[in-house]
């Protein structure tokens, strides 16, 4: 199983626009002294706010999230991209990390994996319909 952790980008301009692609920075609230209970549901809800910039569909509906591990406030996700050559991979991984932190995670590891290879059958029926693949 080939795994690759993509380096996170630094100093992203929250409203950077290079023509056809808009980048949105997700701000997370400052850490609270109150305990936060992280659940798979709450984290998947947070990840559903991350939209593939090249497709009008979120990464959860696309079926890009393969595994989600939670230990206290530490989160480890294994996800993939629609293609190994996806030029937006770093941005998607960074936005996933920021979304998880906004949901209350303290430490986040986003691991990009290529096995099993992503295919359109992994999408939800709604995502398939939206992309005309259903």
Q: Give me the CATH architecture, please.
A: 2-Layer Sandwich
Largest sheet, order of strands side by side? Answer: 1-4-3-2
- For this structure, what is the CATH class? Alpha Beta
Q: Order of SSEs, N→C?
A: EHEEHEH
* Average pLDDT score: 83
Task: Quote the CATH topology.
Answer: GMP Synthetase, Chain A, domain 3
Largest sheet: 4 strands, mixed
Unreliable stretches: 1-19
Radius of gyration based on Cα positions: 15 Å
Derived structural class? alpha+beta
Which range does the strand content fall in? 15-25%
N-to-C span: 30 Å
The CATH superfamily appears as Fe-S cluster assembly (FSCA)
Q: Helicity range of the residues? A: 10-25%
Describe the structure.
With 134 residues, this protein is of the alpha+beta class. It has one domain (3-7, 39-128): 2-Layer Sandwich (GMP Synthetase, Chain A, domain 3), CATH 3.30.300. 22% of the residues lie in helices and 16% in strands. The chain contains three helices and four strands, in the order E-H-E-E-H-E-H. A four-stranded mixed β-sheet has the order 1-4-3-2, with helices on one face. The longest helix has 14 residues, at 89-102. It starts with a strand and ends with a helix. Mean pLDDT is 83; it is low at 1-19.
């Amino acid at each position: 199983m080939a795994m690759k952790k993509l380096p996170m980008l630094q100093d992203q301009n929250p409203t950077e626009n290079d023509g056809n692609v808009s980048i949105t920075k997700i701000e997370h609230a400052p850490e609270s002294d109150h305990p936060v209970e992280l659940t798979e549901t709450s984290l998947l809800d947070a990840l559903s706010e991350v939209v593939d910039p090249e497709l009008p569909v979120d990464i959860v509906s696309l079926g890009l999230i393969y595994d989600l591990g939670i230990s206290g406030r530490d989160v480890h996700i294994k996800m993939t991209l629609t293609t190994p050559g996806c030029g937006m991979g770093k941005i998607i991984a960074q936005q996933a990390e920021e979304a998880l932190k906004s949901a209350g995670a303290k430490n986040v590891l986003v691991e990009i994996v290529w096995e099993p290879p992503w295919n359109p059958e992994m999408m939800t029926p709604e995502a398939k319909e939206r992309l005309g693949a259903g």
